[in-house]
Specification:
By secondary structure, the chain is an all-alpha fold. The protein has one domain: LemA-like domain (de novo design (two linked rop proteins)), CATH 1.20.1440. It contains 6 helices and no strands. The longest helix has 58 residues. It is rod-shaped, with a radius of gyration of 23 Å.
Length: 185
């Protein structure tokens, strides 16, 4: 009888370890998936920027310094390695500032503000910025859940044995950068 109790305890312990490991894997996959979602929205943003720059350039060709800043910021953001959360946050912070400068130029050109192509690009950018903000919040929530699970007992035991490392939050140096790019005219 004692042998069956010991075997039962060992089986329960093994099932618990498997269950805890699977939970940590599931949380890690959620973090990776939510980071992938951010990358998708950033790609959409990066693809939209050249069209926006070219549309504004047609009306304000003499504003070349602003166009160069936007282009350089976009290229720097695209060049960030896929897993570099903080690098991505910093590069996109600079890109957001450059975009605000580009959109500020449009204020000086009434014909540009009335251009249908510009209005459509402006609406697309607004949608992408909203989706990107939502994705950032979801990513940080999944990182919070994952980091909590690997740091709380008993998950910390399994996490340590299986080398689950904490993930970085998507944080911006300037809290104002968390706001959507202002694109209304």
């Amino acid at each position: 009888m004692t042998t069956w109790i010991i075997v039962g305890i060992i089986v329960l312990l093994i099932l618990w370890v498997i269950s805890m490991y699977n939970k940590l894997v599931q949380l890690k996959v959620k973090v990776d998936n939510s980071w992938s979602d951010i990358r998708v929205f950033l790609k959409k943003r990066f693809d939209l920027i050249p069209n926006l720059v070219n549309t504004v350039k047609g009306y304000a060709a003499h504003e070349s310094e602003v166009f160069e800043k936007v282009t350089q910021a976009r290229n720097a953001a695209v060049a960030v390695p896929p897993g570099d959360v903080q690098g991505s946050a910093q590069a996109n912070q600079q890109l957001g500032g450059a975009l605000r400068g580009l959109l500020a130029i449009a204020e000086n050109y009434p014909d540009l503000k009335a251009n249908q192509n510009f209005l459509e690009l402006q609406q697309s950018l607004q949608t992408i910025e909203t989706d990107l903000g939502n994705s950032r919040r979801y990513y940080n929530a999944t990182v919070r859940d994952y980091n909590t699970a690997i740091q709380q007992f008993p998950g910390v035991i399994i996490a340590g044995m299986m080398q689950f490392a904490p993930k970085e939050f998507y944080e911006l140096e300037d809290p104002n950068e968390a706001k959507n790019v202002e694109v209304k005219f």
